[in-house]
Design brief:
138 residues; globular
Length: 138
């Protein structure tokens, strides 16, 4: 079965998370620089089948698009042009960074490890993917 790949897009880093082949578990995959994303995904798709892309939809508390929404939408358009056969889905990403920080705090990691921003981005992508999976289970 193909995997589902989720993105927590930022202008400095993109957190990636992926399902297992049975689409039961969401796991952090990697953190990459936006300029490296297309090449990274091309290589990844050579070895893994991906059924869908899931993006965190950045919104303000009132539900309006946040300032970063235009960047995420642009990234999604680029992926649609590059990988036109892979459907795209959007999940409200409000509170994912906060949840990621809470998860890290509760993990027992040392302070230096807790401050690793790449770890926060990967965990945020995992939370986005987990939300998507929960919404699409029968």
């Amino acid at each position: 079965m193909p995997r589902i790949l989720a993105f927590d897009y930022g202008t400095k880093r993109i957190g990636l998370a992926v399902t297992d082949p049975l689409q039961i578990i969401a796991t952090g995959l990697d953190t990459i620089h936006p300029k490296d994303a297309i090449e990274y995904l091309k290589k990844y798709l050579l070895t893994e089948q991906v059924e869908a892309f899931v993006f965190g939809d950045p919104k303000q508390m009132d539900g309006s698009p946040s300032e970063s929404a235009q960047h995420v939408k642009g990234f999604a358009r680029t992926l649609k042009r590059t990988f036109p056969d892979i459907p795209q889905h959007w999940i409200d990403e409000r509170f994912t960074s906060k949840l990621a920080h809470q998860t890290i705090m509760q993990s027992g990691l040392k302070k230096q490890d807790r401050q690793n921003k790449e770890r926060v981005d990967t965990i945020s992508a995992t939370i986005i993917l987990q939300y998507f999976m929960e919404q699409h289970r029968l």
